[in-house]
Specification:
It is a single chain. It contains 30 helices and 6 strands. It starts with a strand and ends in a 13-residue tail after the last strand. By secondary structure, the protein is mainly α. The radius of gyration is 28 Å and the shape is elongated.
């Protein structure tokens, strides 16, 4: 199969969501007063549309799936239209024309889709879906419509406005398994186009039929693959998101598919859960109550990256929820799997694992302690020190969250792992948000040390200067970003001013943007002319 990319895999959004020690929804919404940074993520998206491609155009349709279709000589769209318009055309001739149309649409180009639509062939293909006495013709027509729906939004719109969806829905109950499977695929492409078409497919009654197919003990792996992928498309898109009512109907089937041994089924079922959980605490709770957390955690040990990645992404979404929801995942043994994933051969998995930890360290001190007890801090500092850059950036957020919400002893434990030097090196990059996180972390470590004792503070201040920290602060006093300028100046004034060194840090007044003496991360002004 060829896949048509609909949503970017690499786009990520660090929106300004914060956590504090209160568990109430009201206080969680009052985010401007909070210290730690909770980061929603929209990086990992599966492909929303799939085109069925046969590289060799002499291959036939249902013969691929065990059917009886014979291969034919390929004819062009003008000849196809002429045959379709013949009122007394021989059925075999019509079939050959439909098969030629399907083969044209199976090529790796959207140009052929426009050609078929502009030639007026789509209404004929929709009509052929109604011919129950010719399942092979239905199959070829359904395949052709599947590939038209795999195209751009205007091409998918042509399928919907051409009246194909009701006929495809009816074919889900076809006695011919190949026809039913192809109809699922076509509807999955329609649903993957937009929230509007997703809801149209749902309102057409697809969910009960997919639920029955999932529960069938005689269903083929191919059928379950189509069902899992279509269910994931029915859960995706957020403007607006799928209704809670619809998700409630689908999630037991998705949970059942998570017990499959097939890689494709598992991957799409995990993506479905990741879409469900990327929508707030209520939707996260729906996933937790369905019992999928244990399955997701266990799938982190799967041998296929295509399964590990969406499973980890779904878990990462869950730990952006309420503290009790984070604790649920911790209780299911998540932390014991993360050390291995932090050094996975695939950088994207390392990044997801580090991102997940960063949202756990945005939790309570008890949850931060669970990260420490799982011995994840040494691995995290290693990633910060010599990981791939995107992983280092995630690690910076993770340690910043720890220093903003952890206890003095937890922060001291982080410092003992020699994290200052890599944090100072992160100040040499051109990503001002990450630089600000690194500055906040350095401030919090220094401030925590002086709270323990003057001697402890002086010792860490010396270490900070030795690894180039003070030089970096002085250099950043010339930075064009005001937030970076202010943060670096705050560190100099508070910890390296001669009067402060003589009097002791305990007598100093906390800076204006702080909570309990810890520096509050404020996202830099994105309106400034800065290379990010």
């Amino acid at each position: 199969n060829e896949y048509k990319s609909y949503l970017s895999f690499t786009h990520m959004d660090r929106s300004g969501f914060f956590k504090n020690t209160s568990r109430s929804d009201e206080n969680r919404k009052n985010r401007q007063h909070q210290v730690t940074q909770l980061r929603k993520d929209r990086r990992g998206e599966q492909i929303s549309k799939r085109r069925q491609v046969i590289e060799d155009t002499t291959d036939d349709g249902m013969a691929e799936s065990g059917g009886l279709t014979n291969s034919v000589e390929l004819i062009d769209t003008h000849q196809i239209k002429q045959i379709f318009l013949e009122s007394d055309a021989n059925p075999d001739k019509v079939f050959s024309a439909v098969q030629s149309c399907r083969k044209i649409l199976s090529k790796k180009s959207h140009r052929q889709i426009d050609e078929v639509i502009n030639m007026g062939l789509l209404p004929h293909l929709v009509h052929f879906l109604t011919l129950d006495g010719s399942p092979e013709l239905q199959f070829e027509s359904c395949w052709a419509i599947t590939n038209i729906a795999s195209g751009n939004p205007l091409q998918t719109k042509a399928v919907v406005e051409g009246g194909a969806v009701p006929h495809l829905m009816r074919l889900l109950s076809s006695t011919n398994a190949h026809v039913a499977e192809q109809a699922i695929w076509a509807l999955g492409n329609v649903a993957g186009d937009s929230a509007m078409y997703r809801d149209f497919v749902i309102e057409s009654g697809i969910i009960p039929l997919l639920v029955d197919m999932t529960a069938s003990t005689t269903a083929s792996i191919t059928l379950h693959r189509h069902v899992a992928w279509t269910l994931s498309n029915l859960c995706r898109n957020k403007d607006p998101p799928t209704s809670i009512e619809s998700l409630t109907k689908m999630i037991p089937s998705i949970r059942l598919l998570l017990s499959s041994e097939d890689r494709c089924v598992l991957s799409d079922a995990c993506w479905a859960i990741s879409y469900i959980t990327d929508g707030g605490s209520e939707r996260i709770q729906l996933a937790i109550q369905s019992g999928v957390v244990t399955k997701l955690v266990n799938l982190l040990e799967h041998h296929e990256i295509s399964v590990i990645s969406p499973a980890l992404h779904a878990i990462g979404n869950i730990v952006t929820g309420k503290y009790e929801q984070i604790q649920n995942v911790i209780n299911h043994g998540l932390l014991s799997h993360l050390s291995k994933l932090l050094f996975h051969q695939k950088p994207s998995i390392q990044k997801e694992a580090t991102w997940t930890i960063s949202n756990i360290t945005a939790g309570t001190p008890t949850q931060i302690q669970a990260v420490i007890d799982a011995n994840l801090l040494p691995y995290l500092v290693t990633v910060l020190t010599r990981g791939e850059f995107n992983c280092q950036r995630e690690a910076t957020w993770a340690v910043m969250n720890l220093t903003a919400g952890g206890t003095p002893q937890q922060i001291k434990r982080l410092y003992s792992l020699n994290c200052l030097a890599p944090l100072v090196r992160m100040l040499e990059i051109h990503d001002t948000k990450t630089m600000s996180c690194a500055l906040s972390t350095c401030y919090n470590i220094l401030n925590n040390a002086y709270k323990i004792s003057k001697a402890e503070g002086n010792r860490i201040a010396v270490d900070f200067e030795a690894c180039g920290g003070l030089d970096a602060m002085e250099r950043l006093q010339r930075h064009e970003n005001r937030q970076i300028y202010n943060q670096s100046g705050e560190i100099i004034d508070r910890f390296f001013d001669e009067d402060v060194a003589e009097d002791g840090n305990e007598e100093n007044v906390p800076p204006q943007n702080s909570t309990n003496g810890r520096l509050l991360f404020v996202p830099p002004n994105n309106n400034l002319n800065i290379s990010v």
